[in-house]
């Protein structure tokens, strides 16, 4: 991707922020800061980032700024939802509906649907999304009215964990080990090195039992070496 194409993606992100009514766009120097953010990162970042989630670009910018200022590692956690590729597989009668409930059975409910990851998902991750939509092995149970059976869907929480830190040798290996130490399985990873010696590392993980992010964020910050904690 040439610089002009990178600039086009940057301008599209800015336009989406304006359309969303984000007041930061009106701050003096903000447009220049966003352009500097894209120039700081490789062209692959602009090519891969989901421009429909312009707020994610702001989060990446903030994390890199925090890491640059503190010389430590900044981390951000959020739940995500991965959708199968449209047109490749059609989910019809097995798709979750407004009537599905979450209980001890682990069935999927609408409140479990979150924004997609910041970067395009691989075929393996999309296959995982399909697996998550399959009915669980448990027998159908009657709904609260006692008149109809309700199909139960297994649900595995997915999280996106984003690190920003000084770049160094074996960084990806160290971060991968860190995620494993807190019980997470890496499903996808995107790594971007900046021109000034920092790294933005984005992981899609499962293995955390709930969608809540506070405990996971705390677990990651506790597991980080002391010199990395923001």
Low-confidence stretches: 85-111, 136-153
Give the CA-CA distance, first to last residue: 33 Å
Radius of gyration: 20 Å
Order of helices and strands: HHHHEHEEEHEEH
The rough form would be described as globular
Tell me, rounded to a whole number, the average pLDDT: 79
Q: Name the helicity range.
A: 25-40%
**Would you tell me the structural class of the helices and strands?**
alpha+beta
Strands, count: 6
Instruction: Give the DSSP E fraction (strand runs of 2 or more residues).
Output: 15-25%
* Biggest pleated-sheet summary: 4 strands, antiparallel
Helix count, per DSSP?
Answer: 7
- Spatial order of the strands in the main sheet? 1-4-6-5
Architecture blueprint of SSEs:
Elements: H1 3-19, H2 30-40, H3 43-48, H4 54-70, E1 74-80, H5 123-132, E2 141-142, E3 149-150, E4 158-166, H6 171-181, E5 185-193, E6 198-206, H7 214-223
Antiparallel strand pairs: 1-4, 2-3, 4-6, 5-6
GO molecular function: [protein-PII] uridylyltransferase activity; hydrolase activity
Domain ACT: 160-230
Protein name: ACT domain-containing protein
